[in-house]
């Protein structure tokens, strides 16, 4: 198959990390790999598309761009979809579904626009093959995505199927679990390279430790699931099996220890079962216990990475609150603006303890515990509460903007120094910004994402 134009959507703030990851997976560089708003674009092969699905921890899905056209009305959308050779991607015996999103589209009904695209696909199959495929909105064989800007319509075919954060191992979970893609983004932003210990003292059902343990063992995240490309006509099973064997050949013994603990023993049980399904039960040491009492799990200092409880992590209104199981090109930007608008009339989420109460005391005690017992460790904490450093009476050495679904967050880094946290000028130069300003880690966008 000829070179494909791929689009890999991701959470806002993760684009730069995703571009680095795609480069590591495929070797693509320069104009073949561009970072945009809400995702990364690549000019790549079909084999690369399968490999990215198998190995990427950061993207939500892998889409193949099939058409970019100007439009003014629904008939233009019909004509655009009619020109796409759908028959080289799937057969009329298979079911399909149209997902459509828009940013400032002049059309009044996206449902009607989706209907026109569906009609165009079905009519082309009838003209080319003598029969038309059926629509299945629940479990389609093929997913077609359309994204409308004020002037252009872009059509994609999906190669992932279920969103890629669904690794296949999470069965046991608590309330508002952290998505695997965001856990992986936190690990990437922390710079953890699997050479020092990693510890999550609020591990919940184990998402962060399990992602870290798989990284430490070289385990591809997609080995335990199926993909949409397996139902597309270009799919060749022997090629896919070769990629799986290649991935398994790169697995190895863990290069660093990984630890997790949680005050709820029920969640520790969940985490242990999830780790077993993920193939890393012997790699992670899980324990129950209060974060204010847990001592360092290893003599060697390492990285603490945690996502403490805060407000309602999932139930949020607006564009981004419609659920993340379906990719919505460009919706991340709309989510950012809608959430910020909501913040003007509602207070920002604040860090909370398990009982749901704001707790300055808890976080200040946690900071004191860390300073006393975790000298030499770096602690990275994801929170929407920009006042958390002052609550902890710590000065962050870095802050990375990230989004947890619809919630705007910061990933704060605190460097644990026993007693006083005062730094010398040389410390500041080594540890990065200490003035509290945001650090844009996503790089400079090379182009606009769809």
Strand content: 15-25%
Shape: elongated
Sheet of most strands:
8 strands, mixed
Number of strands: 15
Mean pLDDT across all residues, rounded? 85
Placed side by side, the strands forming the largest sheet appear as 2-3-1-4-8-7-5-6
Structurally, the number of domains stands at 2
CATH top level assignment of the largest domain: Alpha Beta
Level of helix content? 25-40%
Number of helices: 12
Overall CATH architecture of the largest domain: 3-Layer(aba) Sandwich
Distance between the termini: 23 Å
Keywords:
Rossmann fold, single chain, VC0802-like, 450 residues, 15 strands, alpha/beta, eight-stranded mixed sheet, 2 domains
Per-chain topology:
Layout: E1 4-9, H1 15-26, E2 33-36, E3 39-44, H2 46-55, E4 63-70, H3 74-82, E5 95-102, H4 110-129, E6 134-135, E7 142-148, E8 152-158, H5 180-190, E9 198-200, H6 207-217, H7 237-249, E10 258-262, H8 265-277, E11 284-288, E12 303-306, H9 331-345, H10 360-373, E13 378-383, H11 388-392, E14 398-404, E15 407-415, H12 425-431
Parallel strand pairs: 5-6, 5-7, 9-10, 9-12, 10-11, 12-13
Antiparallel strand pairs: 1-3, 1-4, 2-3, 4-8, 7-8, 13-15, 14-15
Description:
The chain has 450 residues and is of the alpha/beta class. The protein has 2 domains: 4-158, VC0802-like (2-Layer Sandwich); 180-315 and 348-431, Vaccinia Virus protein VP39 (Rossmann fold). It is 31% helix and 19% strand. The protein is built from 12 helices and 15 strands. The strands form 2 sheets. It has an 8-stranded mixed beta sheet. The protein has a 7-stranded mixed beta sheet with strand order 11-10-9-12-13-15-14. The longest helix has 20 residues, at 110-129. It is elongated. The two termini are 23 Å apart.
